Amino acid sequence: MEKRVLAVFPHPDDECFGVAGTLAMYAASGAEVSYACLTLGQMGRNMGFPPFANRETLPGFRRKELEASCRAIGIRDLRLLGFMDKTIEFEDPGLLDDRIDAVMRDVRPELVITFYPGYAVHPDHDACGAAVVRVIGRMPRGERPAVHCLAFSHGCERVLGKPDVVRDVRPYLKQKFASIRAHRSQFYVPGISDGDGRVTRELEERFGTERFWTYRFE
């Protein structure tokens, strides 16, 4: 199992549904797990259920929620890269790549987890994944970490094939659900947001598997 793992996503909460169980597994194994988050999700549309934030206060809430999510998962190294939400596709690619590259050089990950460019629905997701791939693609072939990608656009399996990694994360659902609950300005998930902590069979079936595609460089 890899000992240094880096997740790179654009928004607070990108870590919780698709990868929190995997990151919790690595953290529990003793791996060094780092998370580089590009923005604070400043332009998120949800303000709580019922609303408790506004456009001015939302970034502060989202930062605290992200920190709580990381604690729940077991991530002790959180890097905030300071970009603006919903602008990643418009950022100077050189600046974006340089900031991600600086984290890569510091962390020296054996595994990087990000979005699969072109197959992750949101423009910020795709631009983030594309930047990670650019940075790693410039590394000498023998020094590149493995890259596992989240993909969930409609019909992505017809193009990408079946996922390369299908992981049972049921042993880590308590951590995953705590991560989801942490982002209370963004989500209300029945059985998790308002649950008593029990992991039911229905929740296991819905959240107990995480899937990744390995990015293969030409």
Describe the 3D structure.
The chain is an alpha/beta fold. The protein has a single domain (4-214), classed as Rossmann fold (3-Layer(aba) Sandwich). It has seven helices and seven strands. The chain has helices at 16-29, 58-73, 93-107, 123-137, 156-160, 173-182, 201-207, and strands spanning 4-9, 32-37, 77-80, 111-115, 146-150, 165-168, 209-214. A seven-stranded mixed sheet has the order 3-2-1-4-5-7-6, with helices on both faces. Helix 4 (123-137) links the parallel strand 4 and strand 5. Helix 1 crosses helix 6. The protein is globular, with a radius of gyration of 17 Å. The two termini are 25 Å apart.
**Main beta sheet, described?**
7 strands, mixed
Mean pLDDT: 97
Examine the secondary-structure arrangement and name the CATH architecture: 3-Layer(aba) Sandwich
The number of distinct helices, counting runs of at least 4 residues, comes to: 7
Question: Could you give the count of β-strands?
Answer: 7
Query: Outline, from the CA principal axes?
Result: globular
| Overall helicity | 25-40%
Structural class, by secondary structure, is: alpha/beta
What's the CATH class label?
Alpha Beta
Order of helices and strands: EHEHEHEHEHEHHE
Distance between the termini: 25 Å
How many domains make up the 3D coordinates? Answer: 1
The CATH topology turns out to be: Rossmann fold
- Proportion of residues in β-strands: 15-25%
> Order of strands in the sheet with the most strands?
3-2-1-4-5-7-6
